[in-house]
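Quick one: structure tokens for this chain, please?
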Amino acid sequence: MPDGELRFRRPDGRLLPEVASPPEVTGDPVEVVRARNDAEGLVLNARTMTPSWLGEHLDVGYAIDVLHPLAR
């Protein structure tokens, strides 16, 4: 653009709307996130993201039965 700004368009040519600036975080961002987690009752620790999957093979029949019971 002549003014040096970038403008993005959808595949049909319409301009994408501008995105608002993110809100300012007052104080320590880590403490803000911890306070929000505490307010929601979330308990996060080093094992929070550890899956319960132990490497066993997928039971495809069971998965289909659970995900789509009318598939039979």
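The helical segments are 29-39, 60-67.
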